[in-house]
């Protein structure tokens, strides 16, 4: 959430931000409502002052009683009006996206994203590479038919060494982030309260893409970013505890309405998928340095898996709603013949912290300030699975297991049964 005072004093900055993002958030409506609200608050203060003055004069009689009742009624009416204006303002403010950092390139869509660097060369196979859906079915490690039988379109089963490879990837990534990169592992609930979605920025904008248990009012997490954002909601942290690094595995649940009709083959998009998420709480001075470290931690996973990738800086129109600056990591999948996003690393500055009310004291007696929050996939499945299957496929149709995963999988290759 953006600070209302900042919006009021920097309306043109916010207007340019919305234009750069191609976002139609109601800035003019916010400014108009803010003017009305401030006027009503001023009137309310005048009435309260008048009531105090009348009390000091200690007037008596029927006329004084009538005047007092009229003042109380006017104050009650204005208090209700300002309360309603506050609610309207809160609803509108929740629709404003974060302001891009000055270093973010201005662009109209993903075509204007910038490739920052690459690592490794896409493998040149001596045979025509098969897509992962063909490999998975032939090797008996992915069962699309039974996934649809159980749950419907965009669901699938992993079986045998396919399930074990997925589990191995999760264990490997958590182990590397906790033992080498300095993250504390969290195992959060996969269902959260509504306020957690508001805190992370998923509500109200992305309500149609979330799964919701109406009876209990539980929301299934679209990513571990949601519970991690809210770990310290309404808390004040001491400066000596920053930065805080957390990493979490969760299943993730998304309705994929925004991608209807896309990528219907294979396991690239599904309503349920697994992901390891990195999250940081930092102070304002270090957050952009921490973003670069976050990206490096995600890259380390890709490098140890031996999978070629590229780092892409997102332009203004491709930024996530809560992000001020983002990098994507994309792996090459030769069977699909496309780059697959396996991580998106973002600095949300104080946008999420303001919504979730997470603050810190720079010094013990200082006024609390909002922390900066950062998040990044470390990494996202099943796209890493796709990259491994398609890059490590062999001429005989088997899949070599990356060396670093072999102790987790207990096999050097996945072969036909």
Question: Can you tell me about this structure?
Answer:
This protein has 417 residues and is α+β, with helices and mostly antiparallel strands. The protein contains 13 helices and 18 strands. An eight-stranded mixed sheet has the order 1-11-12-13-16-10-9-4. Helix 3 runs antiparallel to helix 4.
Total E-strand runs: 18
Uncertain segments: none
Based on secondary structure, the structural category is alpha+beta
Quick one: biggest sheet? 8 strands, mixed
Which characteristics define this entry?
417 residues, alpha+beta, eight-stranded mixed β-sheet, three-stranded antiparallel β-sheet, 13 helices, 39% helix, elongated
Q: Can you summarize this structure?
A:
This protein has helices at 4-9, 11-21, 27-57, 62-93, 132-139, 144-151, 161-179, 194-200, 225-229, 287-304, 351-356, 383-391, 406-409, and strands at residues 114-119, 142-143, 157-158, 184-186, 191-192, 212-213, 218-220, 236-238, 244-253, 272-282, 309-313, 325-333, 338-347, 359-361, 369-370, 372-380, 399-400, 413-414. It has 417 residues and is an alpha+beta fold.
């Amino acid at each position: 959430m953006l600070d209302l005072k900042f919006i009021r004093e920097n309306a043109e900055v916010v207007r340019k931000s919305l234009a750069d993002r191609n976002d139609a958030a109601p800035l003019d409506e916010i400014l108009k409502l803010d003017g009305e609200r401030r006027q009503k608050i001023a009137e309310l203060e005048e009435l309260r002052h008048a009531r105090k003055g009348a009390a000091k004069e200690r007037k008596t009689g029927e006329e004084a009683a009538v005047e007092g009742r009229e003042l109380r009624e006017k104050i009650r009416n204005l208090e209700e009006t300002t309360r309603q204006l506050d609610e309207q303002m809160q609803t509108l403010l929740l629709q404003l996206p974060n302001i891009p950092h000055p270093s973010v390139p201005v662009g109209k869509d993903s075509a204007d994203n910038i490739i920052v660097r690459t690592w490794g060369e896409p493998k040149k196979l001596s045979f025509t590479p098969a897509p992962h859906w063909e490999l998975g079915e032939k090797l008996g490690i992915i069962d699309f038919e039974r996934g649809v039988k159980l749950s419907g379109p965009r669901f699938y089963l992993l079986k045998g060494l396919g399930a074990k490879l997925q589990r191995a990837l999760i264990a490997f990534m958590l182990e590397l982030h906790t033992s080498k990169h300095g993250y504390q592992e969290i195992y959060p609930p996969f269902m959260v309260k509504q306020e957690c979605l508001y805190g992370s920025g998923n509500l109200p904008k992305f309500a149609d893409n979330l799964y919701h248990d109406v009876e209990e009012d539980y929301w299934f997490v679209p990513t571990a970013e949601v519970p991690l954002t809210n770990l310290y909601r309404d808390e004040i942290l001491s400066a000596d505890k920053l930065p805080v690094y957390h990493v979490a595995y969760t299943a993730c649940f998304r309705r994929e309405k925004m991608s209807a009709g896309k990528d219907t083959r294979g396991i690239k998009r599904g309503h349920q998928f697994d992901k390891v998420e990195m999250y940081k709480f930092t102070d304002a001075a270090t957050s952009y340095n921490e973003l670069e470290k976050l990206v490096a931690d995600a890259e380390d996973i890709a490098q140890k898996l031996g999978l070629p990738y590229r780092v892409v800086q997102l332009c203004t129109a491709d930024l996530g709603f809560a992000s001020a600056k983002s990098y994507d990591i994309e792996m090459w999948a030769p069977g699909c013949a496309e780059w697959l996003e396996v991580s998106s690393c973002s600095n949300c500055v104080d946008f999420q912290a303001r919504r979730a009310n997470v603050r810190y004291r720079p010094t013990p007696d200082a006024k609390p300030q909002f922390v900066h929050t950062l998040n990044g996939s470390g990494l996202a499945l099943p796209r890493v699975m796709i990259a491994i299957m398609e890059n490590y496929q062999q001429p005989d149709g088997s899949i070599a297991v990356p060396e670093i995963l072999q102790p987790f999988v207990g096999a050097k290759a996945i072969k036909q049964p």
